[in-house]
Structures are given as C-alpha cells and as structure tokens.
Amino acid sequence: LYGLSVSNATISAVTDKLIPELKQWQQRPLGSHHPFLRLEAIHYKVKTDGRYEEKAVYTVPGL
Fold first, then answer.
1. I want to staple 56 with a disulfide (CB 3.0 to 4.6 A). Which of 1, 17, 30, 41 is the partner?
2. d(CA 53, CA 7)
3. Per-block mean pLDDT, blocks of 10 residues, the chain (63 long)
4. Distance from first CA to last CA of the chain, Å, rounded?
C-alpha cells in the first residue's frame, strides 16, 4: 500500500495490541446519552485467490 512494505509479524503485533482495546470498547455500557446507533455499510468486490467476493465495511458515524 503506497509503496510501503509491512511484514506479517508487524501486522500481527499491531492487531494483537488493538484487539483487546477494541473488545473492551465494544463491551462498554452505553449511557442514556446514546438513545440509538446508526450503522452504515459500504459493499466492495474484493479479489481473493483469483475470485471476487463481496465484502462489507461497516461504520457507526458519531451522532
């Protein structure tokens, strides 16, 4: 990506650090100031192993 080479070990190290924080954030209690969440998805066709698969990227915009 953008001419940058990143090893599998680096990707693993980053995700190993982020996943526990992400899970903690996902499991936090929502206060009364969050009456609803808006979920959006963008669908992309991604080529994997010579085949195209449709993948969705989900976002929750801040309200």
1. 41
2. 24
3. 84 92 89 78 93 93 70
4. 31
